[in-house]
Amino acid sequence: MESKADRSTSGFDAVKWLVVFVLIAIGVVGNQYFNAESLLYRVLALVALALVAAFVALQTERGRRFATLLKEARVEIRKVVWPTRPELIQTTAIVVVFVLVVALMLWGMDSLISWLVSGVIG
Questions:
Q1: Each residue's pLDDT tens digit, 20-74
Q2: Which of 3, 10, 54, 120 falls between 20 and 30 A from 39, CA-CA?
Q3: How far apart are the C-alpha atoms of 122 and 110, rounded to whole Å?
Q4: How deeply is 35 buried, as exposed, middle or buried, from its count of CB atoms within 10 A (0-12, 13-18, 19+)?
Q5: Residue 81 has pLDDT above 60, yes or no
Q6: Which of 19, 21, 2 is nearest to 10 (CA)?
Q7: Contact 23/53 with Cβ under 8 angstroms?
Q8: Can you point out the beta strands (E) in 1-122?
């Protein structure tokens, strides 16, 4: 059952999300309205609005969960064992050769089927 504090937080979260969407709409409309201005100024304004919108979004419950997910993903990606350069080159060569072999096989089968169909059709 949802407590009174949870409902007020979710209601306040709805207001925060409304602010985020209004900021995005201001960015879109403002970019269109000020299209005669320098691209640099418009990009800087859009980046500033995006940063403010992201800050407001991170203050919501979903935003905090998303930030936690990003932190956990960063921890997990540090655990990844990346291949060495020779391993990378060898694996890439294997993939390229395999793709070429499959392409040649498909070309051969296509040519054979085309030859058979043209022989049957006449």
A1: 999 999 999 999 999 999 999 999 999 999 999 999 999 999 999 999 999 999 9
A2: 54
A3: 18
A4: exposed
A5: yes
A6: 2
A7: yes
A8: none
